[in-house]
Amino acid sequence: METDLTMSLPESRPGSALRACTNCSRVKCKCTYRTNNTICERCYRLGKNCTPSIPAGRMGKRRGISRTARLEKKIDELMSSLNSQKETITSRVENEVDNRDEQQETLEPNIEAPSAITTSPVPATQDLEESTTLNITKPSSSNVSYPDEVSPSEAEESLRKFRDETSGFLPLVHIPSYVRAKQLREMFPFLWLAIMCTVSASPRKRTALGDQARNILVLRVVIHREKSLDLLLGLLILVGWSHLQKRDRPFWTLFSQLIVTLVCDLGLHRPPSDPSMFCAGSSASDPRVLDLLKSRPHEEQRAVLGAFLVTSMISNVFKHAPGLRWSPYLDVYLSNLADSSKLPQDESLTAMVKMQLIANQIYDESLYFNSGRFPTLYLSALRSQLRETIREGNLSAETKSHPTTMELFYFTELLINESEISQPVIPRNEPDLRRFEVYQRCLASIKAYFDTFFSIPIALLGNMSFTSYPRLVTALKSLHTITTLQDPCWDRATVRMSIDLIPTCDKIIGLFEYLKAASALLSLDGGEDESYNWGLGVFRKLRAAWQHDLESVDVENTANHESNISDGAQDAGLTVPFNIISDWWLLNVFDGF
Q1: What is the reported pTM?
Q2: Is 76 within the bounds of a domain?
């Protein structure tokens, strides 16, 4: 029987393919074949038919698409999608340009359109109209509509008012007279929106457009990280006249840093890229770097200088974050714009930037010397630089006649004179004639500042920029200080005869009340203009507090005048700190602005 069983099995198995038989694999026990490799020991012992198990086909390892292949496939899909969109946009833009050209030829057949610059760099010697104006020949990236839509006639009037009346108070952008509101909206939509929400006669519409502008800034600049000259110019206008917008929460420092971010993202704070300058030095004194800097269009140079001016003023007021840092590259922009541009606005802008550079040195506490004050020679040098900016030949009569230029001049002069007052009193029994001279210079600067401010036509006062308000409050605080300080060499009655504090406050309050009432009368929807409420509230509170101070000082002066003089140096000195730069009282006032 054993022979029969053995003969019924396969004669042999390849040694390399030995596997457990069916019986052993079923019970999961060890399967050991005998010497002849025809039957296993267990099947031989149990007398069972030893059938080899059929191996299951080994499945090959599933290989997916490689990561590189997936990326290449996705890139191909994106490229095909972009190409299709590009073809669609190109055809649409060409149709719009053709239609606009046909309309212009139909409406103005006999008017020759002036030339405008392109986005490519232009030589410094190029024609003035080609190097100083906005680029209105490039197609718009988007057509944006707003909830409170501005009618075409209202848009034209608003653009005219901004160009002829408002922009002179802070000349950040030059819009040629031949540019229409529709053209500006097509080519610079956000700049158009900023102008509309700045000079709109309707307070309700101005507030609504201002909210829309802020939402666009957050969405496009903060979230999507977009960068364009349109966004930068519009943001400068929006911040420059931000006091006309709703002040439900402070945003000046945030928007100031957004201005710095856009300037850096656009690369306007450094020379344009040039393959020939690869790995070469980038010193501003290099002739090649100078040529690259001067090749930038004037609108870009103007935007960078305007960004420095606005952010520096905000930094000096709120002291939360620094403004755009000055560099030798910006110095090239300043000198090039002053030499090559003949526009009165550019002349005013360069003069304001030069004066702001001097003011920054006064505000920068890190420049204070070991004694905590500036040396007299240093202040004298700053005073000479300041006078050089308005010297005849450096500034035209037209620019000098604009009140904003001289207002900033006298304010900067006041900062320099105030820094000299902070020095300690020399112990002596007789009056210090040198301190009397310093007091007199401060009083002259304060009086000249307010004379310039009150010389502004009342119809134009509503066009003042945001930066004028901190200067006005600071000058009033200086007038209060020099009116109430006690020093043997100073006669407070003489100050009141020259310029009296309380009547000056009353005059300012009256101007703001008039502007608020006039704005309500001119409003198209009859809404109340709340943009003047902050100024009225602050000046009324200051007047009430300072009226009480003056009454107290008068009573004390009457009772102790003779004893103060006889005490001499022991009581000589300032009873009121005269320091505009470190006066945190002013910062608390502006925190609610």
Answers
A1: 0.72
A2: no
